[in-house]
């Protein structure tokens, strides 16, 4: 039974064949392989965790794949995770393991582990999971079965906490990975079929850098002539090699597929299909997967960072039109996926979408791109509140604590806490849904009162529509400055735009409006001065009406802006809406009656209060006077359709819509006694006013 379980959990896949092919080309790292094998075979191994670290392109992933192959050859359950494909939270980490094991969300990974005689967990690109460092060390890893081994691989050496921990200190082995030795490099080149007389020049060019060596082999495999390399003429090794390689790709579509992979964060067949405009892209996808500088993760393919930078920069410079075209196709794919997904998958797609904006000068300075994934968010618990209160007190003072406590008691579900290394809070976001609050509570808090009054003045929310106020948002140390915490806060705010049904308004107050104005205006979150609040510490409020520009249209707007590097903040300001007039039912109906009387007098009708009502504002892009006149006529026409109201319609027609000179003449034309005519007219006016009022309520 124990021999079959790993096979059932990790059935043979095409990926396994690819790993086997990589193994045939793998050279060197004999010391690391021998140490790992010894640990696998020893019933009481000296180390339980190997921490492999080294610079980009040095071969960490290749070594991890090799060690995983060694483990599987001994029928040991080997689980390979890549930090780039995992949400850096306990839930996201466990979800990644369950996905690999084929478990449903309710299953326990530890129950599955217990059925295997021994397991090895590999975590590559570990630097992206720094928020989980403490949780893994203190919570997850201690729960693994006794016969378990863990391999971490990343660019950074272990945190001091591993060595300071009395339990882990002697159980962690640190391995610093460097370039291959000359003999190992020659061995690799020979395995790749490169003639021996080229070896010395290649070694002088690459200095044993594994990524550079693999690129050299790729270049040779697509080139029939004689190649010469010189480090003096090509100081940028990776770029030089890529330039040579690109001249030999099988077809323009293959090159385009590679450029797509460099443009996006991760590439899947569905995305590649959309970007290339082809029905079948499997061969192109497999070609990408076979390249030495392309890696495969659970979320798709991605090029090595050095290769990505070179390829992306080259396409932007060489063919800006194609660059824009690919952007548009990829953006369309993401926009659809964002509206089809939720939870962690939606957050992943959102990160992929935001990644497209990384070169825009109005976005780049406001997101901590290098530290995405260094914090994670989860719903706050009561035990987090004292720490969050201290953060509020340090940055906004005692007075702000009143409102933090006020909303924490009423809407605790709106608080998201962010955690970093050691799982300590690095900041938080508090979202208040004003639709769920009482009018009394809204009136008490200056921020909610100012935001609600602004919404009511310019476009009042309907009875079932929601209004989000991001009442507090801050990092523990940087407050509202650029940081890893602030960056994930922004992503989570956008997620709430998608997740909140019937969202009418969102409000985002900032302590430093001048600093954040360019980024927020880029996102069409515009200044709302009348919604500002605070005296001792003033806050500038930014707002967006999601009925005027819904999420789908908003995404398209951002897509149009992402490649426009000439944009300036003043170019992005959306015209402020004219305020809506909110009338009581009696006042509204009286205004409707006056509008009927002035139906043919455009100048007077233009001053009617209904011109500024929601009914008119949301149902026309044309002349508001003509819009009001059409609504009045529509209401009267409805009377005509009912035989019981036809006389009322005729009275309205002859009095207001196509008026006679006097009411007496109107009664005569209708062949009615004047008193009967007046009764029909009053009925018609009341019914049109009632219909308009209901129309206003439902708009």
Tell me what you see in this structure.
This protein is an alpha/beta fold and 699 residues long. Strands 8-9-10-11-12-14-13 form a 7-stranded mixed sheet, sandwiched between helices. Strand 6 (294-297) and strand 7 form a beta hairpin. Helix 11 runs parallel beside helix 12, helix 16 (305-318) crosses helix 17 (320-340) and helix 18 packs across helix 23 (484-499).
The Cα radius of gyration reads 33 Å
Number of domains: 5
The CATH class of the largest domain, by name, is Alpha Beta
- The SS-based structural class is alpha/beta
Coarse shape:
elongated
What's the number of extended β-strand segments?
14
Tell me the span between the first and last alpha carbons. Answer: 65 Å
User: What helical percentage do the residues reach?
Assistant: 40-55%
Q: Low-confidence segments, ≥5 residues, pLDDT <50?
A: 1-11, 231-235
The CATH topology of the largest domain, please? Aminopeptidase
Spatial ordering of strands, largest sheet: 8-9-10-11-12-14-13
CATH architecture descriptor text of the largest domain: 3-Layer(aba) Sandwich
- Overall pLDDT confidence: 83
Largest sheet: 7 strands, mixed
Number of helices: 32
Q: Can you identify the CATH superfamily of the largest domain?
A: Gcn5-related N-acetyltransferase (GNAT)
């Amino acid at each position: 039974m124990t021999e079959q379980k790993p096979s059932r959990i990790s059935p043979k896949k095409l990926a396994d064949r690819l790993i086997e092919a990589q193994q045939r080309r793998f050279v060197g790292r004999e010391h690391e392989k021998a140490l790992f094998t010894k640990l696998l075979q020893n019933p009481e191994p000296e180390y339980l965790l190997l921490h492999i670290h080294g610079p980009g392109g040095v071969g960490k992933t290749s070594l991890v794949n090799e060690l995983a192959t060694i483990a599987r050859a001994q029928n040991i359950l080997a689980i390979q995770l890549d930090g780039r494909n995992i949400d850096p939270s306990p839930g996201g980490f466990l979800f990644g393991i369950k996905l690999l094991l084929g478990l449903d969300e309710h299953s326990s990974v530890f129950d599955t582990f217990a059925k295997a005689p021994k397991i090895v967990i590999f975590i590559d690109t570990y630097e992206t999971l720094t928020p989980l460092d403490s949780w893994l060390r203190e919570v997850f890893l201690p729960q693994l079965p006794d016969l378990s081994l863990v391999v971490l691989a990343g660019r950074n050496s272990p945190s001091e906490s591993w060595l300071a921990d009395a339990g882990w200190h002697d159980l962690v082995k640190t391995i610093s990975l460097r370039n291959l030795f000359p003999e190992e490099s020659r061995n690799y080149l020979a395995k790749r079929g490169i003639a021996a007389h080229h070896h010395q020049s290649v070694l002088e060019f690459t200095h044993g850098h594994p990524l550079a060596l693999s690129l050299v082999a790729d270049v040779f495999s697509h080139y029939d002539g004689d190649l010469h390399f010189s480090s003096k003429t090509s100081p940028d090794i990776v770029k030089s090699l890529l330039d040579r390689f690109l001249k030999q790709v099988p077809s323009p579509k293959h090159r385009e597929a590679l450029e797509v992979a460099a443009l996006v964060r991760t590439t899947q067949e569905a995305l590649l299909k959309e970007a290339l405009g082809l029905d079948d892209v499997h061969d192109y996808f497999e070609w990408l997967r076979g390249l030495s500088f392309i890696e495969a993760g659970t979320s798709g393919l991605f090029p090595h960072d050095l290769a990505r930078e070179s390829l992306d920069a080259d396409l932007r410079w060489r063919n800006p039109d194609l660059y824009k075209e690919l952007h548009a196709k990829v953006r369309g794919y993401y926009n659809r996926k964002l509206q089809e997904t939720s939870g962690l998958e939606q957050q992943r797609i959102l990160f992929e979408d935001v990644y497209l904006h990384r070169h825009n000068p109005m976005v780049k300075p406001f997101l901590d791109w290098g530290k995405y994934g260094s914090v994670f968010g989860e719903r706050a618990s009561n035990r987090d509140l004292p720490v969050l209160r201290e953060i509020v007190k340090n940055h906004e003072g005692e007075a702000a604590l009143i409102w933090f406590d006020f909303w924490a008691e009423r809407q605790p579900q709106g608080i998201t806490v962010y955690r970093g290394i050691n799982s300590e809070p690095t900041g938080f976001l508090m979202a208040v849904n004003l639709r769920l609050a009482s009018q009394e509570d809204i009136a008490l808090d200056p921020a909610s009162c100012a935001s609600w009054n602004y919404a009511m003045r310019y476009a009042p929310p309907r009875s079932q529509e929601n209004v989000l106020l991001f009442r507090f948002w801050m990092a523990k140390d940087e407050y509202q400055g650029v940081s890893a915490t602030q960056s994930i806060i922004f992503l989570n705010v956008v997620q709430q735009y998608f997740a909140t049904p019937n969202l009418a308004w969102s409000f985002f107050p900032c302590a430093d409006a001048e600093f954040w104005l360019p980024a927020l205006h880029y996102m069409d979150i515009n200044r709302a001065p009348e919604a500002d609040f605070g005296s001792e510490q003033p806050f500038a409020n930014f707002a967006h009406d999601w009925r005027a520009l819904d999420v789908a249209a908003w995404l398209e707007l951002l897509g149009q802006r992402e490649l426009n590097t000439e944009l300036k903040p003043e170019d992005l300001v959306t015209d402020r809406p004219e305020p809506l007039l909110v009338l009581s039912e009696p006042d509204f109906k009286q205004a409707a009656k006056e509008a009927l009387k002035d139906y043919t007098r455009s100048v007077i009708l233009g001053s009617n209060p209904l011109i500024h009502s929601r009914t008119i504002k949301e149902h026309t892009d044309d002349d508001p006077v003509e819009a009001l006149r059409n609504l009045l006529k529509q209401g009267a026409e409805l009377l005509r359709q009912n035989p019981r109201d036809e006389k009322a319609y005729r009275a309205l027609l002859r009095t207001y819509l196509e008026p006679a000179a006097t009411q007496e003449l109107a009664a005569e034309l209708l062949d009615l006694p004047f008193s009967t005519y007046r009764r029909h007219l009053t009925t018609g006016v009341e019914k049109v006013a009632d219909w308009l009022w209901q129309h206003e309520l439902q708009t």
